[in-house]
């Protein structure tokens, strides 16, 4: 089995990252507006302190997965934390250890860059992701997830 490597995405990776973002949207049957993936890739490869960023997972010299992370201030500890928004591995590369390698790289970044923790969610129906996280021994949290969006957001904003 070949080694999986992980690195932070840079501006030169915009095209490959945009392709993988579009692949993820197709996989989840989500909208992929024209130019949206390219713009997201551009935003994720900017340089600067505590900006959202992407990690790329490579296997046999091909980029086959990514993780998107956003730094957030965590008021409970008065520290920075990371929020993992998306972790995606191409169908052909699943089972090769890419997801695990991305998670380990995230943990190393959290330690090296002084983040206090990493949080994320997964859809209740995403059993593949849950198997990965459970198999790695990542503890589940007993929290509820709330979301305001679309028409509900508009109604709520109206008072």
Automatic annotation (TrEMBL):
Residues 4-158 form the N-acetyltransferase domain. PANTHER family: DIAMINE N-ACETYLTRANSFERASE, GH14572P-RELATED. SUPFAM superfamilies: Acyl-CoA N-acyltransferases (Nat). It holds the Pfam family Acetyltransf_1. It comes from Reyranella soli. Keywords: Acyltransferase, Transferase. InterPro entries: Acyl_CoA_acyltransferase, Diverse_Substrate_AcTransf, GNAT_dom. GO terms for molecular function: N-acetyltransferase activity. The keyword NAD does not apply. This is N-acetyltransferase.
């Amino acid at each position: 089995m070949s080694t999986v490597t992980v690195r932070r995405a840079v501006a030169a990776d915009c095209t490959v990252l945009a392709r993988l973002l579009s692949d993820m949207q197709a996989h989840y049957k989500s909208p992929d507006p024209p130019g949206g993936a390219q713009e997201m890739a551009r935003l994720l490869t900017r340089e600067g302190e505590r900006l959202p960023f992407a990690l790329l997972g490579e296997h046999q010299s091909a980029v086959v997965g990514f993780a998107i992370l956003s730094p957030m201030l965590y008021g409970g500890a008065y520290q920075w934390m990371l929020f993992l928004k998306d972790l995606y591995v191409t169908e052909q590369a699943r089972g090769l250890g890419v997801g695990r390698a991305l998670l380990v790289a995230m943990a190393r970044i959290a330690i090296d860059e002084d983040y206090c923790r990493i949080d994320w969610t997964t859809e209740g129906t995403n059993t593949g992701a849950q198997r990965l996280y459970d198999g790695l021994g990542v503890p589940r949290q007993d929290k509820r997830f709330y979301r305001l969006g679309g028409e509900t957001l508009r109604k709520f904003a109206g008072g």
